[in-house]
Amino acid sequence: MSKPIISIRNVTKRFGEVVAVDHVDLDIVENEFFALLGPSGCGKTTLLRMIAGFETPTEGEILIDDEDMAQTPPNLRPVNMVFQSYAVFPHMTVADNVAYGLRVTGTPQGEITPRVAEALEMVQLDRFGARKPDQLSGGQRQRVALARALVKRPRVLLMDEPLSALDAKLREQMQLELARLQQTVGITFIIVTHDQDEALSMADRIAVMESGLVRQVATPDRLYEHPSSRFVADFIGKVNLLDGRVTGARGKSVSIDVAGVGKVSLPFNAEAAGDVAVAVRPEKVRVSTAKPKGGAVAVNGEITDWAYYGDTSHMFVNTSDGLRLSVTVQNETRTTVDNVDLGDRIWLSWQPEDMLLLTE
Amino acid sequence: MESWRDNRFVFWVFALPGTLWLLVFFIAPLAIIWALSFGEQVDLVNVEVTGTLQQYARALTDPVYIQIIWKSIWISALATFLCLVIAYPIAFLISFASTRWKTVLLVAVILPFWINLLIRTYALIAVFRTRGFANFGLEWLYTTAQLDHVFGPFEPLPLLYNNFAVIAGLIYVFMPFMVLPLYASVERLDKSFLEASLDLGASQVRTFFSVTVPLTMPGIVSGIILVFIPCLGSFLTPDLLGGTNAQMIGNVIERQFKAANNWPFGAALSFLLMYATFGALALRAAFAGRKQGMEV
């Protein structure tokens, strides 16, 4: 891994009695697309604002390019931010908004004009320079905020919930565009989001936060397929969490007695004992009318709820042992949905190696 | 539910009291004064409306009145400007205070309204007179700093019965009219605009002049209008605090109606003041029209 551009060392932020950020250690490296992901109130925005300089850490230090930023005000930091509300100045034209950050730092006019043009082109607003922000749509205003920050050529671009104000279609388009932009400009991006899809689809690495703590830092696929805790497994994607108890471990497998399922042997080399949680993702569960053969884990149950999403459906199944499991079914043919009814008894099955063992 | 505006009977029940009040106590007196401004004093009690313009001609040609009007304008302008400079930090302080302090500070700004203007003005006389609180405090500082050994005994400053007293009095009386609209617009200002400006590399001072002032312009303009216009027409403050040389146009108008018993001339002066005010408001409207779409 290349050298860290931002080092967050043992940073804590308290607002009175409330601990917003709790002893966080993070290294963010050059050219990385990094996401801070967590439910609202988990401290992710506070952490971002501390990097930008709008909040000061109660304890710990933040280093940008190996330099302690404690005494550096926001206007002198080599980072720029795209605000959740975009904060595009309503009394200036689009071009003036983008030029603002260059003008206030005394960039010569001869350099400002081409750089503004280049930045506007980068966000595909080259024909909008003379417009006022109130003549733009929400998505265009966000591009202005993006161009305004990028024109400064910051070491790090910070984005606070950049897509939350856009509608679903536009959000998907901007996700791709932001990822593309990050690769073109080669600047480290840090985004704050509560939307796991956003984080998974755009980020190189994700830090999952909960009540001020960083619970796990990993690549999107590691987070999804190898969550380190119940919280992360539950927060990223959908999951069926089951209670279990370790009955023995031998070589490269662990035997677990799973409530409502029975004895399961997981092919992992894990150090676990006592009460644990096991989990299986809904899309890894197969549905069949007959009991499946082979080494799959299988349970029988009754369909109680059905949510239709077009490409997929979510089925909720109650087993006779009191488990409630959810399953994602691909609507592979146009008649898939017609063949299932509420109240039908079906078999659910999954491979033991698709199960997660969660000790935290 | 049927809108009350659609029902003629209900509409008139609601609209009539207000309309009558406006007609009888505002439009009618204004019309009478306006008519009088085109009249002549024929004897001690009678005025004849002859359609003459001689009252306006006298007001606009006699240098005494032009001078007093001009002086009223610059005193009002100076008082308004000082109000703005003092009120802006106050508005900011209130806006950034915690919710509890906000209420306390807002009440503190409004509190003087609970006391009669006349009493407040007399209180200022007690502060500014030769042996008043201001001079008393200054004397204490002067002697405590032992300046009397260097420069001789303390000489009370002439704080009362001059232009200084009038301007100080006007600022004191009209300050809340500046603070409140400014506060409203600072409060409405999305603070992330200020953060964005800092983030882009602007200093605090640059942020204030490039972002804060333009975005709170509606409040600044409202405050200026709410202070400047009543300042221009004030007569109690200059009457009590100003000396014989510190008269404003309001005092002259009052004298025409009372001591001088020349209603037509007083009416003409009143309307000249009103035309000036309308002119200022028209400028404001033009300004607002040009900047339309700027408000956040």
In short:
With 360 residues, chain A is α+β, with helices and mostly antiparallel strands.
What's the count of strands of chain B?
A: 2
Overall CATH architecture of the largest domain in chain A: 3-Layer(aba) Sandwich
CATH-level-4 superfamily name of chain B: MetI-like
- Element-by-element helix/strand order of chain B: HEEHHHHHHHHHHHHH
CATH superfamily of the largest domain in chain A: P-loop containing nucleotide triphosphate hydrolases
Instruction: Show the largest interface.
Output: A-B, 26 and 21 residues
Total individual domains of chain B: 1
The percent range for helix content of chain A is 10-25%
Descriptive notes:
The complex is a heterodimer of chains A (360) and B (296). Chain A is α+β, with helices and mostly antiparallel strands and 360 residues long. Chain A has 8 helices and 20 strands. Chain A has a 6-stranded mixed beta sheet with strand order 6-7-8-3-9-10, sandwiched between helices. In chain A, strands 13-12-11-14-20 form a 5-stranded antiparallel beta sheet. A 5-stranded antiparallel beta sheet of chain A has the order 15-19-16-17-18, with no helix packed on it. In chain A, strand 4 (59-64) and strand 5 form a beta hairpin. In chain A, helix 2 (94-103) packs across helix 3 (109-122) and helix 2 (94-103) packs parallel to helix 4. The model of chain A has no long low-confidence stretch (mean pLDDT 89). Chain B is mostly helical. A two-stranded antiparallel ribbon of chain B has the order 1-2. The radius of gyration of chain B is 24 Å and the shape is globular. Chain B starts with 7 loop residues before the first helix and ends in a 6-residue tail after the last helix. The mean pLDDT of chain B is 88. The A-B interface holds A 52-54, 73-76, 80-81, 83-85, 87, 89-91, 100-101, 104-105, 132, 134, 145, 148-149, 152 and B 190, 192-193, 195-203, 206, 210-211, 214-215, 293-296.
